[in-house]
Amino acid sequence: MANVLVVDDSNSIRDMVSFTLKSAGFQTVEAKDGLEGLSKAQSGKFDLVISDVNMPNMDGIELCGELRKLPNFKFTPILMLTTESSTDMKMRGKAAGATGWLVKPFNPDKLLATIKRVVR
Amino acid sequence: MSVDLSQFIPSFLEESFEGLELMETSLLNLEAGDNDTIHSIFRAAHSIKGGAGTFGFDAVTDFTHLAETLLDEMRDGRREVDPKDIEILLTSVDCMRLLIEAARDDEEYDEEKIKQTTKQLSQTLANTSTTNDVNAEPSTIENEHAVNDEASDEQSIYQIHFVPEHNLAKTGNDPLFLFNALADLGDLTTVANTSELPALTDIDPQELYLSWDLTLKTEASQEDILEVFEWVEDDCLLEITKAENKNDAEPEENSIAQQPEKAVQIEQANTTEENTDVAVQSEQTTQNTSATVVDEASTSKPKAKAKVEVSSIRVGVDKVDNLINLVGELVITQSMLSELGSDFQMDKIERLNSGLEQLLQNTKELQESVMRIRMLPISFAFNRFPRLVHDLANKTGKEMELVIKGEQTELDKTVMEQIGDPLVHLVRNAVDHGIETADVRLANGKPEKGTISLDAYHQGGNIVIEINDDGGGINRQKVFAKAVEKGIVEPNATLTDSQVFDLLFEPGFSTADQVTDISGRGVGMDVVKRNIQSLGGRIQVDSTMGKGSCFKVNLPLTLAILDGQLVKVGTETYIIPLISIVESLQVDRELINKVSGDMTLYRLRDENVPILPVYQLFGLTTDFTNIENALLVVVEADGQKVGLMVDHLLAQQQVVIKSLKDNYQQVIGISGATILGDGSVAMILDIPGMIQMALSYAQTKHQKNSTSNQSAIGEHC
User: Fold this and answer.
1) Angle between helix A60-69 and A87-96 (nearest 10)
2) Closest partner residue to B11 among A12, A20, A24, by Cβ?
3) What's the whole-number mean pLDDT along residues B233-256?
């Protein structure tokens, strides 16, 4: 069963993403910001990371960059969950090693359909 | 599959209100150049927008987007932090709250206010060099798509030439999953091109060397296919060509209407071309009216009713862990006792005693922990005041600052919820009528800026909230004169300061035609006092002319449990709240003073305390009718002391309060009931109520023709 790290500072969004993934048979671990995400990432094995961009302490782009430095996360898909997917954001995300981006408003069915592109 | 997210609405709402509060406090404290604060304000707005979009609270999303844009400009340094903008943002926070509340209750909102603020925001935004084309995504491209989409109802064949860059995998993308996603769209055949593959020794296992030619037979549109490659399109060479042969029949509008689901799916999917945002509103996508209608019909989400208010409380994990730990200990104690009980002999009595002691300890700790779960820092009640004072200062044109202390003091959630309004009232009064205008202050040798301070601290099992202002103070004479005029007190009565200030809480005081000095000090103050009393608390006023006033609110930590003194009167046991007891004493007959009527006074040091025989008040029979062999419990409420005459003092203990009002009906002089260890029911005395009873009792006796209310005592004597 695939294990997903869900990072978002908004409880409700995090709960919803997590709930959606679980109902589709994924396992999830949640973190409330980039720092916590990074520390949880180091203490587990993950098949996918879904992270918000705007967060306190460490934002999603930074988190992505940090994760890519870890041997375990070199090829792990990292999806950024954002409100705006401006070109600038995409560029920064890509530079940090993000796999792709999901656009809020969050839609469960779309989310599940989309993550199939990077994980089984 | 479809996932129902409505269960997350309450948590979204809670989070949003927290976010709004954070925005408000941060905006009030915002100084130019404080980037961290701007960032956190922006994040709060951003989260609210994101969540609101998810639940279809479109009004919230649209409005918040404007505020967010303004914040974004501040964040990026494109805009200076201007006080005027902050005012607009504060108003925006109000609007967002209004909109979210309206969404929660599924009700209408004040559209005028929203419209006005929206206009203000748009104007402010338009004033910068970088005008943002809010929401206005080009729709021309979309129209072309719409035509394509209509065509894509029938199966088409696409040739896809896909040459990924060597380092594609470094971003976590895997062509295999992309092909899987394509295969979900229709029939896919893949042909891999291995010509780029280097010799085995030269292969870097982390690189990709293959390219593919794919053939996809699908009903999906070109946009659907492009979307699959959305995340890799910059890292690959991608050519998609549509085989011409099947693409002849332009379907008519009817056919779309007959397949509504498909139409919607296409619209959702058709947004990935070039740099167009994926978030483009689907309504904009097409001119084809029938498709639009279909779209709206099928995407209109079921209105989530969040009306059922399940009040929730957020508890720190440590508190819960502690609780679980204690329950564990309780279980151990229980098993020890039951083992002891199954085979009990007298020689084990010592172990039984120690076991019971442990049980007592466990219970006590458990009780404390459970209470702590309901406790929240009082900052929840305090944090609305910076904004309130800010607004009031603007409105009254007075300068003042608010000092908040002790905001980490914890208080029961229910008490917290109910103390908010009285506090607002007191603070508003302090601003309105306490603090003087700057010129008056300067003339009186005070600093130009007034100070209002809020303080909370624990004092012997109670929580005390103080509202201080360094304003003009309360004019004692004027209050007294007003009270005489209103007929509340006799002109020749001698009253202590605290008794005079207590007059402010008389209902009669809250009329508009008052002496200006004290106006407003009385507005609704009776309600304030009533609210505080209904929480089992009391309020005291202290004031010095010219120096300022202090309102002190004393509240119990919780409403569920009360520290009480058990007393016996006849066959009945009563409970006197410890908070109101001054002292208990054996009567010294020399200090008893009989005055006219039935009133007996007891000389307590330099005060005369009226004696209240409880047996008389409640119509009980007892052997202790003579005051000389009875006990006196001196209690205080509303600045008035009385001595309750009781037969015996029993134990002091905590009792669980059961409401009489809920289970029976309100009874004067009784605030509630409890169940004692032996299973019997005992009444908890309502001290202010009893004093009221006694006073009216004395008054009716004293002046037989007086009009004051007789009912209270009549029922019970």
Assistant:
1) 20
2) A12
3) 62
Provide the number of structural domains found in chain A. Answer: 1
d(CA A68, CA A89): 18
Q: Residue type for B450, please? A: G
Q: Quick check: B464 pLDDT over 60?
A: yes
Is B77 or B584 the better-scoring residue by pLDDT? Answer: B584
Report the predicted TM-score, pTM, of the whole model to 2 decimal places.
Answer: 0.55
| Residue in B64, B179, B71 with CA at minimum distance from that of residue B125 | B71
**CB contact A92 to B (< 8 Å):** no
Q: Do A86 and B277 touch (CB under 8 A)?
A: yes
Within a domain: A120: no
Mean pLDDT of B499-514: 68
Which of A19, A83, A90 would best serve as a mutation to test chain B binding (most B beta carbons within 10 A)?
A83
- Which residues of B fall within a CB distance of 8 Å from A86? 277
* Residue B300 one-letter amino acid: S
Minimal C-alpha gap between A27 and chain B (Å): 16
Phi then psi for residue B641, to 5 deg, are: -100, 140
Q: Which residue has the higher pLDDT, B296 or A87?
A: A87
**Who has greater pLDDT, B327 or B278?**
B327
The answer to whether B457 and B464 have CB atoms below 8 angstroms apart is yes
Interface check A10 vs B, CB under 8 A: yes
Range with the largest mean pLDDT of B124-138, B242-256, B453-467, B486-500: B453-467
Set of chain A residues whose Cβ sits within 8 Å of the Cβ of B171: 94, 97-99
Query: Range of A10's domain?
Result: 3-115
Query: Can you tell me whether residue B17 is helix, strand or coil?
Result: helix
User: Are A100 and B5 in contact (CB < 8 Å)?
Assistant: no
CATH number for the domain harbouring residue A42: 3.40.50.2300
Is A25 within a domain?
A: yes
Query: Which residues 19-78 of chain A have a CB within 8 Å of chain B?
Result: 19-20, 23-24, 54-56, 68, 74-78
- Quick one: closest CA in A to B10, which residue? A12
**Choice among B74-83, B400-409, B580-589 with the minimum mean pLDDT:** B74-83
- How large is the average pLDDT for residues B378-388? 86
Interface confidence, given as ipTM, is: 0.83
CA B564 to chain CA centroid, nearest Å: 31
